[in-house]
Input
Amino acid sequence: MAAREIDLDKVVDYRAEYTAVVQKYKLTGDKLTGLCPFHEDRNNSFSVDLKTGKWHCFSEDRGGNFVSFWAEFHGVDTKEAYKQILEKYGVSTEAPKPAKKEKAAVLENFSLAEYAFAKHLPEEWLAKTCRLETRKDRNNGTEWLYIPYYNAAGEESTYRKRYAHKDFRWRTGSSGKICLYGEWRVPEFANAGYAVMVEGESDTQSLWYMGIPAIGVPGASMFKPEQSSVLQGLKLYLHHEPDGGGDTFIHKICTGLRDGGYEGEVYEWSCKALGEKDPSDLYIKHGREQAAKLIRDALKTAKPVDYKKEDIPEAISGAPISLRQPEGWIYSDKGISRIDEKKFQPVLCCRTPIILTKRLQSIETGEEKIEVAFKRDGLWQSAIYPRSVIFQSRSITALADLGCTITSENSKQVVRFLGNLEAENIDIIPKEDSTSTFGWQPGNRFVPGHADGITLDIDPSQKAMATAYCQNGTLERWVEHMAPHRSRQKFRFILAASFAAPLLRIVKQRIFFVYNWGGSKGGKTAALKAALSAWGDPERLMVNFNATQVGLERTAAFYCDLPLGIDERQLAGNNQAGLEKIVYMIASGTGKIRGAKSGGIQATQQWRTVALATGEEPLSTETTQTGVSTRVLELYGGPFDNERDAGLMHQQSVMDCGWAGPAFVKRIIATPERIICDAFELMQGYVNAMANGKNGSHVSGISAVALADAMIDSWFFSTQQQSDPTDEADVLQQLGIHPESWKKAKIMAASILEEQVENNSTDVNENAAQFIVDWVMSNKAYFGTQVIGTCLGMMNESGNTVYIFPSMLNQALTKAGYSPRKTMKYLADKNLISVWTEKSGKVTYSTVRRFGDRSCRFVEFFIGKLAENEDPMDELERQMDDEEPPMTPVAAPFQTSATQTTMQDDFTVIDNSEDLPFST
Output
């Protein structure tokens, strides 16, 4: 008889076949994806077209039709596989006889009696308890086993037909009506308080017969979340069969229980440990009593299952986070692929695997960013971008600069994938706080070293600065290197100043400079490196004065609550005004207000720091504003006694670094801030008592450093034990400071304070007043009505008052580095110059006097009031008597074409009433 050609697409139920063996599958219409059953798969790399049965494993890049799948899965050749498939579905390859035109029998008879015999269960019990019965097909008379499914209300939801050779058929129209097998018996299980969940009806019935509450799931992957409500109040024991379907069963049940809101205990057990595949086989082998005992003993040792914690397989080896595969997409080591809806094959979109690892909310601004991770050249890298960059096809190409294979062509697909990836894993992707600066953070946290739950969100250009806070060597060796040099007070002070930075916020102390200056070879830079080595690599942490103000501003903001090391003042050249501006800027603790491109203003940078600086020249001069002097603690001379020690410190500070600072912060975090403030007040009171009314800013700065010194001396350098508390030592003991350490810190503070007193300069306005006196006396030949050349003004007959042309005085003060406006205001407040109020109410610092035959404006300067022991005008007149004035025009030091006055028949009248420095 001739063989006929069979269309398997019309015979085989591809959905049932593949879902029974493919683990963690997902269905999208007639498409299926899941874990490949032919290798150890952690991705959904296996795809199937359920219309044609064709499969493809993109991980191994191979595939075929359903016959090849059956052959490989069951270990037979394709010929035998084809035969087995047709036998299972009752299809014959032989062509029917034309005369009879009868269809070959597809399904074979199977009765309740046969089922009872096969399962060793009483037929009457099956009929009465399980309500099974034998029924016949109305069309061909084929007998089949009727297996009813009743819901919790006891009403029939649907039924299942069982034919010979384990061939099952659901009642037509069963979709959406299939419930748990034994659901109607759940109220009976309430007294027992538990139920065993198994796959299939026969295992459920065998457990019932053994007196064990059980509920069946028709198939390994047919449990639905909404069915969890039926199980509430029961303790569940999930049976794990020793095959791939068993893994799918456990995963599907746990996922459904979690998604369905089940609240209860879940355990896992297996008959494999008892030597059998399932409860039915165990019952057949051991009998009712013995099998029941074995199962109950196994339930007692069942292991708990954390079903609320989803076990997501690792998609890519070494990935920073495991995420669910979004529907319609697959990511793996090979990149990002989209599942083609027509061919149901993966189509590569991006060769670089890119995933989302964190959602970051800025502590400073509240804006949210996304951290992405990608694998390039075998290594995982990460970057942080605003959401507007990651989820826009135009801007996500910025990742190409980091090595991702993103172009303008595939950017839309990548954005779509990342959007679906976030939506699928919104409950998994962690959310953390982020900050763009180091230092103290909300929740008493500190970056770096003590930043639980905080991610550092910085520009890629700042990574080198951030990685400078690293650790090399050991803390013990660092202490060993630093200890011998702390006997020198300057080194001790500079080292302690680096630890004072994180204390500023606690003790409410303002920012200050510690400036070490003097000749070369004194070890100034070596001491600066030693101070910075407490926090990280000093060579990378240190900056110099050859920097823009904006650069230093952003560096200070980034290193908030940490010391800022600035080396080599001489690199700034002779730009004293620029230096003073830097001091004011850093000491202010607030950056410049700048507009934003999108409108409004940018977030203003703020910081707290102790600036440690070095140079070969003093930072302040006679013309330096007083505010600079109050903010700078100047130390003259080298911190080391010899070049050998300084040279050795350059090496040691790099070899062992980055340990003491974080350890210091750890102790601070564990200490109540009130105790630290009390200790600061004690030290400040001691230093202030010695200051004898000197600069209060210096007293506060020295007190903060001395407190830090006492703390590190006790915590790191001292081996002495705590002594009995006294009135003063009570606070110190709470802070862990030894009295001897406190004593040494006081000695250091006294030494540094004494040096500050010696280096203190007078007020800049007093210097300016003295400068005017010196300038007048050194240019005495250019005052008077008979001067030949540039005339600076005149003197009265008594010699106590000098009349100076406003423009000449303005030019002299400006050239000397003083502020004319500020100086004139000071002189007026001290009654050293005349002040006139015009009818309009305008106040001027000039007066009108006759100069020859004309009226001119002068600054009337009472020079005699500045002399305490001798009238300066007397000395000036004596000098004028001893020397004759020049007979030919001589160029004065401040002569210009605009202000030159020639003494001939008359004098030029200079009216400078609107000159800003001299009128308001």
User: Anything to note?
Assistant: Residues 696-717 form the longest helix (22 residues). Residues 99-105, 757-761, 868-920 have pLDDT under 50 and may be disordered. The longest strand covers residues 354-362.
